[in-house]
Amino acid sequence: MGEGGSKRGPYAVGVERRQRILAVAARRFSDAGYSQTSLAEIAREVGVTTPGLTHHFPTKQHLLLAIVEHRFDVAQQIAEAAEGEPDGTRTLRLLQSIADTFAADPGLIDLFVLVSAETADPSSPAHELFARRYERVVEDIAGLFDAEAEAGALRRDIDYRALARECIAVSDGLQLQWVVTGGRIDFSALIRNHLDRIAPAIAARRARPSG
Questions:
Q1: What is the pLDDT of residue 205?
Q2: For residue range 73-98, what is the model confidence (pLDDT) as tens digits?
Q3: How many domains are there within the chain?
Q4: Are residues 109 and 179 in contact, defined by beta-carbon separation less than 8 angstroms?
Q5: Do 88 and 180 share a domain, yes or no?
Q6: Count helices and strands in the chain by DSSP H and E runs
Q7: Rounded to an integer, what distance in angstroms lies between the CA atom of residue 123 and that of residue 210?
Q8: In 3D, which of 16, 40, 17 has the Cα closest to residue 28?
Q9: Could you tell me the CA-to-CA distances from 54 to 51, 70, 184, 189 in Å, in that order?
Q10: Both 96 and 176 in a single domain?
Q11: Predicted model pTM
Q12: Does residue 184 fall inside a structural domain?
């Protein structure tokens, strides 16, 4: 092979196959339902044997958890790619962008709510996943708020970790309501309403001109 060419090694092929399995499983779980979808069906569409699929994901629950973890990764990537000046609206705009991303793939909202129901059981793998990822998400969002406060665009006397938890709780609660209403609520619009109410409460107080 020429100097500019390269062969894909087994690791690259394995990563690509794993991503393909996740994509097919997410779509099938969303379209047909988690309980109605078998690993054999997913493997057949991916073009691998069932043992080949279970090499990456031993059970259907492992596959479901991986899909939900990928959803956490997407939100984290959006946060890490946040751009713009810390003008007091950057973090709120970021949270809206994450909500819009979730709303654009409603099938993943169903799966997220399905997995989150298991988190109350400390022995469930979902419990450890959510506990670990929630702490990271809280710190990421709070850090973005803190940066805007340091820049003088937001108030400094607010517990932004508590605010981050509140924003996550509102998002998760609205996703649950989206599922139980059969998608009849406008998830993105309700998140926007919540963030619009927060914005003036956290904005830095500007000194009034004298005279």
A1: 80
A2: 888 888 877 777 889 999 999 999 99
A3: 2
A4: yes
A5: yes
A6: 9, 0
A7: 62
A8: 40
A9: 5, 18, 36, 40
A10: yes
A11: 0.82
A12: yes
